[in-house]
Amino acid sequence: MRKTTLEIPDLQDKAVLITGASTGIGAALAQAFASQGALVGLHYNSSVAAAKKLASKIESIGGTVALVQGDASVPGEMARVVEAAVGHLGRLDGLINNAGGMVARLSYQDMTDAHYDAVMDLNARSVLTASAAAIPYLKIRGGFIINTTSIAARNGASNGAGLYGSAKAFISNVTRGMAKELIPLRIRVNAVAPGVIATPFHERYSTQQQLDELLATIPQGRLGIAEDCVGAFLFLASEMLSSYVIGQTLEVNGGQIMP
Fold first, then answer.
1. Over 90: is that where the pLDDT of 157 sits?
2. N or C: the chain end with fewer CB closer than 10 Å?
3. Centroid of chain to Cα 57
4. Positive or negative CA dihedral for 204, 190, 97, 51?
5. Annotated catalytic, 164?
6. 258 occurs within a structural domain
7. Other CB atoms closer than 10 Å to residue 4's CB: what's the count?
């Protein structure tokens, strides 16, 4: 297996399920963990071609990857995804809850019950469901859960994304609660909060004008790319590097917010 420049020995042979891994940050994570010698459960939903292409790329350099399809917005689906991943990989050492999305830009004034359900099911319920299903496997040898939250959890989000930001704030607090509850089981729980990252997420939900306005608020002077987020996840996944880091959210945002 071809390695990245920085090798993290204790990630070798770890079985890691990454949800929402066909594009964007999730795809960068799948490649990074595979490059460390991890066995990757690559969850996807509608991006079938992208998921298969990524899996082929990982396999072409000697990596082990299991494709698992499932709709994270459907209650209960993520429990099936976890079970399927374990079936393919034989065990589970880590879960990265990365699946999520804005669904649509909609103001609080125009919010409907259907929109609320869609956003919360995709971004919040899916994390709870996947994590609950993963815990019995993770506690066997000890492991990790890393949740993907967002800068929107801290700043209230941009116009029309408020409910999405609120769902991510929910996940930030879930991270802290799970961390306290699961560390006695030797399961470390943390989160990563990306800032404005140039991925298909913003291609779908943001105009160029909105991105330009956001860019003006970033001290580093550029939008992030998916690879900018990888190091934070690898750090939190590694017991060797972060064994005493519990219930934390690492902000990856070019200085846009400095909590």
1. no
2. C
3. 20
4. positive
5. yes
6. no
7. 14
